[in-house]
């Protein structure tokens, strides 16, 4: 008997990850987040950041064009720049901009070993396993169907021989 916990929320020291997919106590199944290596995930120091609140743009009219709620963050050592204007609140945009900057820094420093690439690789593995399983199932069904047809044609021919008809 294994206990399955669903809807758990996972937090790293850096940012919110989201709900777990599946987690079983006995370790048979693990979520994607449990298989990802966060050891090389970068950290942000406030002295390395240059932040500014700027005018927003896009739909929303006068309120968006006049308010300084879009955030621009620049990581000074790498000169990576992120602009975020997803919400109308400046502090939420700042928090989202920091998360975006962390993801960009992770990709910059770790390349193919970044968290996003690890998750993508794990999802591709799961997808390929599912496709392989479906292909095997289709193949077994085809074999079963062909043997059923052979048996039924064999029974018909034996019935014709016993009745004496050609």
Secondary structure layout plus pairing:
Layout: E1 4-5, E2 9-11, E3 16-19, E4 23-24, H1 32-35, E5 49-54, H2 62-66, E6 70-75, E7 80-84, H3 90-110, H4 115-163
Antiparallel strand pairs: 1-4, 2-3, 5-6, 6-7
Q: Which structural class fits the helix and strand makeup?
A: alpha+beta
CATH topology description of the domain at 46-113: Double Stranded RNA Binding Domain
Strand order of the largest sheet: 5-6-7
Q: Strand portion, in percent?
A: 15-25%
What's a quick, concise take on this entry?
The protein is α+β, with helices and mostly antiparallel strands and about 170 residues long. Helix content is about 50%, strand content about 15%.
What does this structure look like?
Helix content is 48%, strand content 17%. By secondary structure, it is α+β, with helices and mostly antiparallel strands. Among the domains are: 1-36, no CATH class; 46-113, Double Stranded RNA Binding Domain (2-Layer Sandwich). A hairpin with a 4-residue loop joins strand 6 (70-75) and strand 7. The longest helix is centred in the last third of the chain and has 49 residues, at 115-163. It is elongated and about 95 Å long.
């Amino acid at each position: 008997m294994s206990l399955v916990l669903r809807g758990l929320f996972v937090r790293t020291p850096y940012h919110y990850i989201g709900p777990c997919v599946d987690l079983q106590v006995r370790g048979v199944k693990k979520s994607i987040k449990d298989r990802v290596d966060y050891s090389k995930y970068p950290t942000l120091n406030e002295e390395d950041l240059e932040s500014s609140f700027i005018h927003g743009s896009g739909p929303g009219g006068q309120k968006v064009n006049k308010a300084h709620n879009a955030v621009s963050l620049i990581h000074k050592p790498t000169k990576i720049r992120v602009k975020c204007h997803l919400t109308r609140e400046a502090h939420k945009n700042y928090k989202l901009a920091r998360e975006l900057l962390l993801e960009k820094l992770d990709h910059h420093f770790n390349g193919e070993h970044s968290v996003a690439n690890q998750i993508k690789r794990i999802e591709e593995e799961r997808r390929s396993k599912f496709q392989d399983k479906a292909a095997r199932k289709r193949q077994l069904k085809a074999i079963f169907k062909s043997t059923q047809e052979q048996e039924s044609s064999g029974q018909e021919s034996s019935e014709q021989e016993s009745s004496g008809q050609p």
